[in-house]
Amino acid sequence: MIGLIGQVLTLALGSVLGAISGYYGGVVDLIVQRATEFLAAFPDIPLFNGAGRRDPRFWSPILVYFMLTVILAFVRWGGWRARCAG
């Protein structure tokens, strides 16, 4: 269920930003493209390590995993497109 939520968040964020980029074009499109490339440049292991250390100790393992999924959804929303274009 957590993976499904992560995919839905990624799909929603990517769709909204893609629609805004396509509708306005020009500078907005350029900013969205550069943001996608910038976020795709982050390696996963240090991101997991840093995000995992920031979680409070009293959180359950399920909640920690869910928060990591949400973080990855916001960081990797354009990952497929950025990896294919690169």
Please sum up the structure shown:
The chain is built from five helices and no strands.
Strand content: under 5%
How large is the count of helical segments? 5
Shape: elongated
The string of secondary-structure elements, in order, is HHHHH
> Whole-number radius of gyration?
15 Å
- Roughly how many Å apart are the termini? 31 Å
| Overall pLDDT metric | 78
Profile the largest sheet: none
Low-confidence stretches: 81-86
- Structural classification: mainly alpha
Number of strands: 0
Helical residue percent band: over 70%
Characterize the structure shown.
This protein has 86 residues and is mainly alpha-helical. Helices cover 83% and strands 0% of the residues. It contains 5 helices and no strands. It has helices at residues 2-24, 26-40, 44-54, 61-75, 79-85. Helix 1 packs antiparallel against helix 2. The longest helix is centred in the N-terminal third of the chain and has 23 residues, at 2-24. It is elongated. The N and C termini lie far apart (31 Å). The model is unreliable at 81-86 (pLDDT under 50).
What keywords describe this structure?
86 residues, mainly alpha, 5 helices, disordered C terminus
Describe the SSE topology:
Layout: H1 2-24, H2 26-40, H3 44-54, H4 61-75, H5 79-85
